[in-house]
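ERR on first pass: missing label on line 2. Operator R.T. fixed the label and resubmitted. Corrected input:
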Amino acid sequence: METYLQFMLLGLGSGVIFAGLALGLVLTYRASGVVNFAHGAIAMYSTYIFSSLVDDGQYPIPPLPNLLSMIEAVLGWFGIQVDLPDIPPFVQLGDPWSWPMALIGALATAGLLGFLFHYLVFRPLRYQPPLSKVVASVGLMLMLQAAIVVRFSNRPRNVAGLLPQDGVDVLGTTVPADRFYLLAAILVATALLYLVFQRTKFGIKTRAAAENEQFATLLGISADRIAAVNWILAGILAGLVGILAAPITGLNPLNMTLFIIPALGAALVARFQSFWIAVWVGLAIGAGQSLLQIMEIRLPWIPDINLSQGLPLVVIAVAMMARGQVLPSRGAIERGRLPMALPTRIRPRLMTFWILFAAAILIWAPFVWRQATINTLIGAVLALSLIVVTGFSGHISLAQLSLAGIAAFMLSSLATDAGWPFPLAPIFAALVATGFGIVIGVPALRVRGASLAIITLAAGVAIEVFLFKSDGWFAGDSTRHVADPSLFGIEFGPNSPFFFGDGKVPSPAFGLFVLFMFTLAFVAVIRLRQSMLGEQMLALRANERAAAAAGVNVTSIKLAAFGIASFLAGIGGTLTAYKFGTFNMASFGVLGSLSVFAFSYLGGIATVSGSLYAGSLFPESIGTLAFEKLFFPLGRYEAYLAGLFLIVTTLVQPEGIDVFDRRERRRIGWGFVLLWRKATGNPDRTKPDWVERIYPEPKHKKGMRPSPPATVDAATTHEDGGS
Amino acid sequence: MKPVLHTEDLTVAFGGVKACNGISLDVYEGELLGLIGPNGAGKTTFINAVTGFVPWSGEVQFDGSSLKGLPPHRIAHRGLSRTWQSLELFGDISVRANLEVAATKLTPMMAIRDYFGSSERVAERVDETLAVLEMEDIVDERPDDLSMGYRKLVGVARALVAQTKLVLLDEPAAGLDRNETTWLAERLRQVIDFGISVLLVDHDMGLVLNVSDRIHVIDFGKTIAIGSPSEIRDNEAVIGAYLGAGGGDE
Ligand SMILES: Nc1ncnc2c1ncn2[C@@H]1O[C@H](COP(=O)(O)OP(=O)(O)OP(=O)(O)O)[C@@H](O)[C@H]1O
Ligand SMILES: [Mg+2]
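pass 2 clean. output:
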């Protein structure tokens, strides 16, 4: 018994981080209605700062795009070698710092991060739909995570402990004293926050702003300034628990970033409202995980499947099932819009041209380009999956790559172990992913927006720890062989022979197979967008209850969206598995899911043609390869830039690259036509058809439309504001 | 005549507040019934209850059968549709798509057939509705880009396009000017001529008194008067309710 108690108390170490992060989540939600997925990343980032200051007296400079290296590269094209100054990765600030100074420096950074998040990202997004806010915070999470990987690498780092470690005897077992100091610290912090919120003007104002932002504004409360203070507080708190608990939990760029998941569970149980509940649940998750770990070892009847890792998912799922839409609304105004879902037309001649072009590259281009094309196409298939579920039906899924991983795993079992023939094995594998995807979609029947992002993220982690990593189930070993596909005796795997070309891997035969699969998926999704099913998804996305009132069967359409998307993800997963010739769980991690989401959103989440842009953003795809050939190798910067651009996209161009490109093509193309007509003295001002086809501009600015026929005056005076 | 919608003792409670407190109401076939009452009287709640958006007790019969326990889309499929006080359009798909969504009862088989391009679209009914409401020239626009007047119209069109027997309109004239309201009134009478019954909620007394066959007045969730427009105009209780609420007639 003592051991169980001991392990529970030991688990308070991570419990305190969960609790501290959950507190911060509640703070920022109450202050500005944002569920900040990057909150764990703030803790992780500031802990690295602390450690770097204490160990080396160095302050890492966040990776910045260095225009000078662009210039170097461009001059390099002309054979001119120059060496312009690089931005240094660190500033040396004297000798290693004493810990109090380093703590202050790190906490200042944490507070600054909180402030910048609010000021630069979430304040500008305050009227945007929840989708944009979730996307932006996922971008921040990726970016901070990648920034640390760029500066400090992926390796775990030892953090100097600040709290005494000597053993304390409790009820017959010995536990290091730091657990109790941490516990005391978090309880004091919570009590302080609680008092501040109950007793001070600042607290009352925050509560008023959380209840009803518009009303609070009428009372002269600056919701904005209040939100900023809360963000700073939350940041500092995250930094503090991170630094204090890091010696216990260990520190690497990923683990503390993902502590956000148990913290989200705790905050959910607290309905993002109650500090005390958030803290107790956070502590309980920490203690519970530690307890489950020892039980798994001690008790033979408990399967060794990393149960402890699944605890946060269980908490999240139970909280959602018990409460439904748990995030309380804030009476906030929402006037932002979702990414426009412009239709993509099937244009046979144009498509034939591109397919032939891609085929030619796959057959004759040097193998790096062949490989990049294959990667692009597989990435585009994965992006199509997100286009269906997020772009069309409006549901955020952060587990798509995990679903792809399930299909990849199934493929290796079916095709290699069980010897199923070619089209059957991958199709069935994708269907298994579809089943899992529909299960993940079930919570979507009750919740959407940030809540759904939370549960899909947790589901992705659960798939990773239960299915891919645990010994008992799926994987066992982490890599498994996947046999090359073949049909009627013709092989088209990456190692298959082909008539032309350099004979290097991947074989053009495989490239053509991927091209075929992509084309199929692409046309299928275009068709979906045009079909009534697709229209109902878009209606659902625009307004769920109005859709229900208009006779849309919300349940079926949602599950259909999740099902179709998961099937596509499954196809993407099988293609990935064929490409590597193995199932390797490392290619289907949670961070990967987030990146796929980021790339898809960047490329254009609501337009089918956006999938190609998305595909070109994947690592080792055409886009990245071209960039690297022209400028400089991206390497670890790739994830960092993806996060950065994701945030920029939500801020300035929610449609992503695809619509941006269409609009510019329209503008420039039409501009040239006008110039040409002017030059040739043609007074014609009518627009050719293609102008509208590329990008249909609203014919009338809102409110400038004439009113219904019988009226004399236009209804402009009745406009309900907004732009 | 038999009622197309019949509610008996319809009660909706939000915590302790009874937003509808035992409303018994009939809409007869081919009738335009006005439902009025001061702000907060429970009109929107009544519509929400009947269309399956809030739980209720009592009884609701539509077209002879009970609506108890049906989800909103099933109620819509039976031919009972509604508009929303706050519009609630599908702002980012075209007006035509807005109507197409409402006009189809999508079954899985039908979705599949349509996906492979072999089902007849609902285009005809959509075109018809567009013609009746004289809105053909905005079919390809997105509601977000339209003026308030047109957006209201899209809402009405979307409610009418399904094979509707009864349409519940929640303040269709709010935000419209005089001319637009007059125009809307004409359209509503036209809708009745097509054999559709209408329940009209509006604060524009001129409109309601003008177009309604009968008027049902509620206050604090309870019926306070039922009668013809001229009866309602002179009803003491109604005048009292409106004066008490500070006047809802705008
Ligand atoms: N979801 C809800 N939860 C709690 N109370 C509600 C809810 N919806 C409505 N109410 C309350 O029920 C009462 C009736 O509201 P309802 O919206 O039905 O009035 P209404 O007659 O449509 O008013 P208006 O003319 O202003 O539109 C009001 O007191 C309102 O505050
Ligand atoms: Mg109302």
